[in-house]
Amino acid sequence: MPQVPTHNFGATYQEGIVSQVDAKRHKIKATIPALEDFETAWLTYLAPNAGGNQFYCLPDVGELVAILLDALGEGGCVLGTIYNNQDPAPASSNDIWLKKFSNGTTIEHDRKTGNITIHAAGKVIINDSNIDINNGTVTVSGGDVIADGISLKNHVHGGVMGGPSDTGKPK
Q1: Where is the Gp5/Type VI secretion system Vgr protein OB-fold domain (predicted)?
Q2: What spatial distance separates the first Cα and last Cα of the chain, rounded to whole Å?
Q3: In the chain, which ranges are E strands?
Q4: pTM above threshold 0.70
Q5: Is 18 exposed, middle or buried (CB count within 10 Å of its CB: 0-12, 13-18, 19+)?
Q6: Which of 1, 33, 105, 161 is found 20 to 30 A from 132 (Cα to Cα)?
Q7: Top-confidence residue, 129 or 15
Q8: What are the distances in angstroms from CA 26 to CA 22, 43, 64, 162?
Q9: Which one, of 82, 90, 143, 152, lies nearest residue 117 by Cα?
Q10: Residue 142 above 80 pLDDT?
Q11: CA torsion sign, 134 to 137 to 139 to 145?
Q12: What are 150's strand-pairing partners?
């Protein structure tokens, strides 16, 4: 006589709406409209990388997500978010990798042209002990360049003399 399985390994695919987010544990709860707005237990939100190379991002409350639930609906994981009429895809090209934030900031890479475009809602801050910019022209438009507190547009030179002499350092 065959042995009766002690575990139910069945799973079900569902689509749900994020109802709660636990950022510390990287988990979410969702309500599932197809199951009379059943609210799931805390479910792990899958990430593309979680080892040495990491990617951290969680959905917002109200986002549509794809869920894989166990047969009893007690456990499972969130596979990712789903574009829809309320939250349409921000690009429509296979060549575009785009990260768009709710504050309007975007980071885009076009693999066809090689261009990287950043639109920031705030400042762009780069911290490192040394920053090198190589190979090409640097163009700055729309404002002043300030290096070590010295304005490129408004600095003055001391020691100005006629003839072949050099000016003093900018102030």
Answers
A1: 15-70
A2: 93
A3: 11-22, 27-32, 38-39, 43-45, 64-70, 76-81, 96-100, 106-110, 116-119, 146-147, 150-151
A4: yes
A5: buried
A6: 105
A7: 15
A8: 6, 9, 17, 68
A9: 90
A10: yes
A11: positive
A12: 147
Band of the pLDDT at 103, cuts 50, 70, 90? very high
Distance (Å, rounded) from C-alpha 49 to C-alpha 52? Answer: 8
Phi, psi (rounded to 5 degrees) for 35: -115, 45
> Taking a C-beta distance cutoff of 8 angstroms, is the pair 23, 58 a contact?
yes
Residue 20 token pair: 């709660």
The residues spanned by each domain of the chain are 11-81
Task: Pick the more confident residue, 115 or 48.
Answer: 115
Structure tokens at 110: 């076009």
Nearest to residue 79, comparing CAs of 10, 9, 14?
Answer: 14
Please count the residues of the chain: 171
